[in-house]
Design a protein that fits this description.
Layout (H helix, E strand, L loop, with lengths): L15 H8 L6 E2 L11 H9 L13 H15 L8 E4 L2 H15 L5 E5 L5 H8 L3 E5 L14 H6 E7 L11 H11 L3 E4 L22 E6 H4 L8 E5 L1 H14 L5 H11 L3 H25 L11 E5 L3 H12 L1 E2 L1 E2 L10 E5 L4 H10 L4
Parallel strand pairs: 1-10, 3-4, 3-5, 5-6, 6-7
Antiparallel strand pairs: 2-8, 7-8, 9-12, 11-12
Length: about 375
């Protein structure tokens, strides 16, 4: 009997061996390995979650009109773009959209089988390709973290089902040239999907979206997980090309991909409130500054501030040894760069998502304050 697909170990589970060392320290482990928001969402959002009255009925898979209209208003305020609600559809958090997209696109274009994605990136782009039975082709990134589209071979262009871009990047924080990516995809009839879940936390200039360069042939993916500390609600949206949004929303309707009604109602309140995002931006900016200073001194390396996102990304050499030592001395768990592609094995990623008092605890342990 032949052996079928065996899922690889989930990357972050491999850090479990380091947790005990941090847990033994006074105050316990401070987990900076996963970008899970720890600050509270607005009270108004929680109130909306509890009082929507939508618990008994099936929610629309595409997203309620109030939700899609709220995403439209937000996109106009944040990026200066005008989207109609029928150009927007809900997803059950952005990760499920990332991982399931290749199989839906493969059904649409069975003659194509290749998913292009940045070589230094969130591992779900590659895993989505693998789970769809597609070829996962990593496109090199330059020293700044930007994807190098000129490096894509003609044979891969001919087979390409989709190109993923991610700006601000997880893990590097780099800002990509989204206009160039959109132009590249249109010239080759390859859909370009831009993962923009960290756009609210752009430090170098204003937030950017690929949709500022037109909607033909492109989609942008957004999430409330990072923006509003609502990762547990699983609310995201994809928007852009009319035909792509229509096709995907119909396929996903048949699959039963639905954001729960109460979560949709709460998301409307969150999207219409920019004040809590401004407060969160300030918190992340302060935490990035603190951890960069402390870890630079402790590691004796210069740690650059990211152009976007809430991660520090820096070269350390033996990343696994570094992560183990940091857990033992500082009680902080961080991610080795190997999780984000073979091009980054000597880097580590530090997520400054923990509350400020926990960040300060790590600083004290490392002698930074």
């Amino acid at each position: 009997m032949s052996e079928g697909f065996v899922p690889p170990p989930y990357p972050y589970d491999r850090l479990d061996a380091f947790k005990a060392a941090g847990a033994r320290l006074d105050g316990g482990l401070v987990d900076l390995s996963i970008g899970t928001p720890c600050d509270p969402p607005p009270r108004s959002v929680i109130d909306a979650l509890a009082s929507s009255g939508t618990e008994r009925s099936y929610p629309p898979s595409i997203g309620s009109l109030p939700l899609r209209s709220a995403f439209s208003r937000w996109a106009n305020r944040r990026f200066g773009i005008d989207l109609q609600p029928d150009q927007i559809a809900a997803c059950v958090g952005s990760k499920e959209f990332v991982v399931t997209l290749p199989q839906w696109l493969r059904l649409r274009s069975p003659q194509r089988d290749t998913v292009l994605y940045p070589a230094v990136s969130y591992p779900s782009y590659e895993m989505g390709a693998i789970l769809a039975g597609c070829r996962a082709v990593a496109v090199p990134c330059d020293a700044t973290g930007r994807i190098v589209l000129d490096a894509v071979s003609e044979s891969d262009v001919e087979r390409a089902l989709v190109l993923w871009v991610n700006s601000p990047s997880n893990p590097t924080g780099a800002l990509d040239d989204l206009g160039a990516a959109a132009t590249w995809g249109r010239a080759r009839d390859i859909p370009v999907v831009s993962d923009e879940c960290y756009a609210e936390f752009t430090w170098s200039g204003p937030p950017q979206s690929i949709l500022q360069h037109g909607t033909d042939g492109v989609l942008a993916v957004h999430s409330l997980s990072k923006r509003s500390n609502l990762a547990g609600l699983r609310v995201g949206a994809y928007a852009g090309d009319n035909e792509l949004v229509s096709y995907l929303s119909e396929v996903r309707k048949h699959v039963g991909m639905m954001v729960p009604g109460p979560a949709q109602a709460a998301a409307v309140v969150a999207l219409d409130d920019d004040a809590h995002v401004a407060e969160q931006r300030q918190l992340y900016a302060e935490r990035l500054e603190t951890m960069a200073r402390v870890l630079s001194d402790w590691s004796n390396v210069e740690i650059p501030r990211p152009d976007g996102g809430f991660y520090l990304w820096y070269r350390v050499g033996d990343a696994w040894a570094y992560a183990e030592r940091l857990a033992a001395v500082g009680g902080a768990l961080v991610s080795p760069g190997e999780f984000y592609g073979s091009q980054s094995a000597d880097f580590v990623r530090v997520a400054v998502v923990q509350p400020t008092d926990r960040i300060e605890l790590v600083a004290r342990r490392l002698g930074g304050s």
